[in-house]
Write a structure and sequence with these properties.
Blueprint: H1 32-52, H2 55-64, H3 74-84, E1 88-92, H4 98-106, E2 109-113, H5 130-137, H6 144-158, H7 163-178, E3 181-184, E4 187-190, H8 193-196, H9 199-206, E5 211-214, H10 217-221, E6 233-237, H11 240-255
Parallel strand pairs: 1-2, 3-6, 5-6
Antiparallel strand pairs: 3-4
Helix pairs in contact: 1-9, 4-6, 6-11
């Protein structure tokens, strides 16, 4: 069982690896059209979200008062997250190298892009935008156990230098943070950002186009990530303590120098 307590930073941590990528969100620069695109993206996703999202996601969405018709202000979101879990949505300039990304997670800072896809790319964008980052990810950061799990993931990855080990550990992130499922009241619910923010990926799961197996750490570590096709297999947890405990086990195995995947 999880034994860690919420770690609320008393001062802003130094982020030497991430600092070159940190920016300020120029909220006043967003146009009426961009706000309208955000509203359209939210409108398209809410029917599935209301029916199929995990309770923890919906609670975070409500707690943050995430707007359905205005782009989010990252400072306002951070102020609310700080009170509950100590997390911040921190604006970054774009793609970050692994060490910088892990450093931010370990400091409870979620790297958040500030650009928004255009109206002609509503269904898909090849790289994460503010809709994916905030609508998809941030509500889960208001859940204390998930928040602790994500920080623990960042801490472990930040001290691993072997790329092959990082690739295997990254499968945990992919099959939880990005494409995680959870059993609730006898049904599979979605909480991973790639499912929350994508109509196609979410429909693939709820329509039965994707096999769902119980989350077993060893099997997840043996399942490579495929980014060029709809998922044929995903994993469902019984509760969020399960993935926190999985990270504890993974840390122990890394510290012992054990082989992570066959």
């Amino acid at each position: 069982m999880r034994t860690a307590e919420l770690e609320m930073p008393k001062v802003t941590p130094l982020l030497p690896k991430a600092s070159p990528f940190l920016i300020e969100q120029d909220y006043a620069a967003y146009t009426a059209e961009q706000h309208a695109v955000w509203a359209e993206l939210v409108r398209r996703r809410m029917p599935q979200i209301d029916q199929h999202a995990a309770d923890e996601y919906l609670d975070g969405f409500a707690y943050l008062h995430l707007s359905r018709d205005q782009l989010p202000n990252l400072r306002a979101l951070s102020a609310k997250l700080e009170c509950r879990t100590g997390w911040h949505t921190t604006a970054v300039s774009g793609f970050m190298p692994g060490p910088a990304f892990f450093e931010m997670l370990a400091a409870r800072r979620f790297p958040t892009t500030t650009w928004l896809r255009s109206r002609d790319s509503l269904e898909y964008t090849p790289e994460p935008d503010i809709f994916h980052d905030v609508f998809g990810h941030v509500p889960m950061h208001a859940h204390p156990v998930f928040a602790d799990f994500l920080q623990r993931y960042g801490r472990l990855c930040a001290r691993v230098e072997d790329a092959s080990i990082l690739e295997v550990i990254g499968r945990i992130f992919w099959y939880t943070v990005e494409f995680g499922l959870v059993w609730q009241r006898g049904k599979v619910r979605v909480y991973g950002s790639g499912l929350i923010s994508s109509n196609g990926e979410c429909t693939n799961v709820i329509s039965g186009g994707c096999a769902v197996k119980p989350f077993v750490l060893e099997e997840v570590l043996r399942t490579p990530v495929k980014v060029d096709q709809m998922h044929k297999l995903l994993f469902a947890i019984e509760g969020f303590e399960q993935i926190y405990d999985a990270m504890h086990e993974l840390e122990t195995r890394v510290d012992r120098g054990e082989r992570l995947a066959a």
